[in-house]
């Protein structure tokens, strides 16, 4: 049995439910899934300040719930807190966008991004740079999102995303489209036969990579050297404080 934890660092349970449903659709045999949702932070993350709070929520949730799991998936398209979590936890932590981008690069030479909300464009550009795949990025198309209800309207978002993929295809030179957004998990499967490009969204690639890492059981990287301190962190959850004071 492989146990994988899905972590949503925003406060919208509906997003967690969508992610969990898509993970269950694609999970291999013998995979047990559990999902958790943050109790603090933004309902939908779309700005740099909200993303910083989401990274904190991600670390709190992972610290509190990771015991007994073989891998964890960060169910937010900004991969908030993922790089930090890898320095603290004894299990693989997979970001849904990082997983989708690496998978896209195995399908074609150049990928395009479809992102939800123009305000989030700088966050995705920064994430692509952190992942190290800027050179393979062909173009970005944004779907404007005016409200939380619009973001959670599956039919509306599917239509808008398909139009954005068509715009990417019209540019030429793009081999595969990656659709960013935890709330639209499963959209690549739903639109696969209608889209002019191969499609990926984050959850299915992240789950496949989490399952593979759980089987491979790679040794965790050496944590970064810390300043010596006898004083544990204060003002945060007890589980996270313990990890920060004694990583892995």
UniProtKB/TrEMBL annotation:
GO terms for molecular function: amino-acid racemase activity. InterPro entries: Asp/Glu/hydantoin_racemase (IPR015942), Hydantoin_racemase-like (IPR052186), Iso_Racemase_Enz_sf (IPR053714). Pfam families: Asp_Glu_race (PF01177). Gene3D superfamilies: 3.40.50.12500. It comes from the Bacteria. PANTHER family: PROTEIN DCG1. Belongs to the HyuE racemase family. This is Hydantoin racemase.
């Amino acid at each position: 049995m492989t146990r994988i934890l899905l972590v949503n660092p925003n406060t919208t349970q509906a997003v967690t439910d969508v992610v969990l449903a898509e993970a269950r659709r694609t999970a291999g045999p013998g995979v047990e899934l559990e999902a958790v949702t943050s109790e603090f932070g933004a309902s939908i993350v779309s700005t740099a300040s909200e993303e910083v709070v989401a990274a904190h929520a991600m670390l709190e949730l992972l610290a509190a719930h990771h015991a007994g799991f073989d891998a964890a998936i960060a169910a937010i398209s900004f991969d908030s807190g993922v790089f930090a979590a890898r320095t603290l936890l004894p299990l693989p932590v997979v970001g849904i966008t990082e997983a989708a981008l690496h998978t896209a690069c195995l399908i074609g030479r150049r990928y395009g991004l479809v992102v939800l909300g123009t305000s989030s464009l700088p966050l995705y550009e920064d994430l692509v740079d952190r992942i190290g795949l800027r050179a393979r990025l062909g173009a970005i198309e944004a779907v404007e999102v005016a409200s939380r209800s619009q973001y959670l309207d599956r039919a509306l978002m599917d239509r808008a995303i398909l139009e954005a993929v068509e715009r990417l295809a019209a540019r030429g030179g793009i081999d595969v489209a990656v659709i960013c957004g935890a709330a639209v998990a499963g959209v690549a499967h739903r639109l696969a036969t209608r889209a002019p490009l191969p499609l990926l969204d984050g959850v299915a690639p992240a789950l496949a990579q989490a399952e593979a890492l759980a089987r491979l059981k790679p040794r965790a990287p050496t944590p970064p050297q810390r300043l010596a301190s006898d004083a544990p962190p204060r003002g945060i959850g007890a589980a996270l404080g313990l990890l920060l004071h004694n990583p892995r």
